[in-house]
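Field log, afternoon session.

UNIT: design team B
ACTIVITY: writing a sequence onto a fixed backbone
BACKBONE:
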């Protein structure tokens, strides 16, 4: 058992000599860490040059389930994408616009899109510097579903008063902290029609009881559907574990960033490193 290898600069540089030193500690390399397989690190990618390598059971299961969604999904396919930063999920959104019937966007990342459209969002979190990418999104496409109402408050700690308001009615000092009941109903209707669902990211500030209703509603809508459901992302999975809902989903991915990279068709150095090694045993 080794310490956190990221304490060594060579790890994140995918240094071959460092990987060779790691390889000297064993006889076979087993990658069972899907969650870091999108990183070109020495213990993930370069090490496969020096040992026979295989995919572990967990990694194999991740690839099988996510490949099904990426390459041969059932239809209608609904993608639900939330969370804070749209910059980390823009490629994922774009990839689903080419294959899904519906893309539901919520959470703080939806604020950035609304802001780009000129919608008033008060003091809500907005991510700067990505507006050129947003212009490439088909913002008028019927495939994209944005919140139509929201839970608004001047206090994001959940102690102050809050109200439900239509999107666009946000006051100058207010924050959008969750999707509202009309958005929940709209999204649930879309979800009910799906044969396959992929979900990554919460709909609001779910850590606060006052603002977890949207994420709860999405979870319940998926559970009530007959669709094959895949969920991933640390925050989303933690929320579902807290509620005891994990077993109600078809597959729960251990990856957040890795899941998004895989589904977006981006390079996966940890998996690619095994492609020529997988039968060496």
């Amino acid at each position: 058992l080794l310490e956190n290898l990221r304490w060594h600069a060579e790890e994140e540089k995918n240094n071959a000599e460092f990987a060779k030193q790691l390889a000297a500690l064993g006889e076979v390399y087993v990658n069972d860490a899907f969650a870091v397989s999108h990183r070109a690190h020495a213990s993930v990618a370069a090490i496969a040059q020096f040992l026979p390598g295989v995919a572990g059971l967990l990694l194999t299961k991740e690839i099988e389930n996510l490949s099904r969604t990426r390459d041969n999904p059932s239809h209608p396919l609904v993608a639900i994408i939330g969370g804070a930063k749209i910059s980390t999920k823009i490629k994922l959104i774009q990839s689903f616009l080419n294959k899904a019937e519906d893309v539901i966007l919520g959470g703080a990342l939806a604020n950035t899109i609304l802001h780009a459209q000129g919608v008033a969002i008060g003091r809500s979190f907005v991510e700067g510097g990505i507006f050129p990418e947003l212009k490439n999104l088909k913002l008028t496409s019927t495939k994209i579903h944005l919140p139509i109402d929201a839970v608004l408050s001047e206090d994001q700690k959940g102690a102050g008063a809050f109200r439900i308001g239509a999107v666009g009615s946000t006051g100058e000092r207010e924050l959008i902290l969750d999707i509202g009941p009309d958005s929940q109903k709209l999204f649930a209707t879309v979800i009910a029609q799906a044969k396959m669902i992929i979900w990554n990211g919460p709909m609001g500030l779910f850590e606060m009881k006052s603002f977890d209703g949207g994420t709860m509603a999405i979870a319940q809508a998926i559970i009530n559907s007959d669709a094959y459901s895949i969920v991933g992302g640390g925050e989303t999975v933690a929320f579902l574990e807290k509620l005891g809902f994990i077993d109600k989903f078809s597959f729960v991915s251990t990856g957040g960033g890795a899941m998004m990279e895989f589904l977006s068709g981006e390079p996966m150095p940890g998996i690619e490193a095994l492609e020529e090694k997988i039968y060496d045993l």
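LOG NOTE: The chain has two domains: 5-60+266-275, 75-226.
NEXT ACTIVITY: expression trials, pending approval
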